[in-house]
Amino acid sequence: MDALIDSLREEEISAEEIAQLQQRFEEAISQLPAYRETGSAAQARPVFSEDSLLLVCRHNEKIRLQKKEAERRNISNTFRVIVSLLIIMLGFAMIILPTPPSFEIYTLFLFNDNDGFTLMDLISLVIVFAGIYALVTAVYRQQKNY
Fold first, then answer.
1. Contact (CB, 8 A) for 28 and 47
2. What is the pLDDT of residues 33-90, one digit of tens each?
3. C-alpha–C-alpha distance, residues 124 and 131, integer Å
4. Given CA atoms 17, 18, 20, 24 in this order, what sign does their dihedral have?
5. Closest listed residue to residue 89, CA positions, set 100, 101, 81, 79
6. Residue 125's closest CA among 81, 104, 95?
7. CA atoms within 13 A on the CB side of 82
8. 118, 130, 122: which is closest to 89 by C-alpha?
9. How far is Cα 141 from Cα 72, in angstroms, rounded to an integer?
10. What pLDDT, on a 0 to 100 scale, did the predictor assign at position 144?
């Protein structure tokens, strides 16, 4: 009986299906010898009232909506993590890959005659830190939701 109740809790059941299950359960119980001994008083009252059927349906709908919302949040957070990782990779690629002199706008710090820290490198670092911030906030939100 407990296994049946657990499986019914996991499924989405409409009011009509609950009424059918109730009728089948009452028919099965009425065929038992112990039930026949108790008399027809127990048979006269319904196992579920209309209000309880409505409450069960509302509860199932609420659980279904909560599952959809959790799934939507999970997909959103996963997308945020992926985008933030791509932003970090883009920033590092801008630093590592050679750029033409026209993109190196202005040299802020000169290491030697051929190399230095340019304004483009500074912009790339800002992009990397923005990606790290986005990654940390996305992971924090994901842990907060669980």
1. no
2. 766 666 554 454 555 666 666 677 777 778 888 888 888 888 988 999 999 999 999 9
3. 11
4. positive
5. 81
6. 95
7. 6
8. 130
9. 13
10. 76
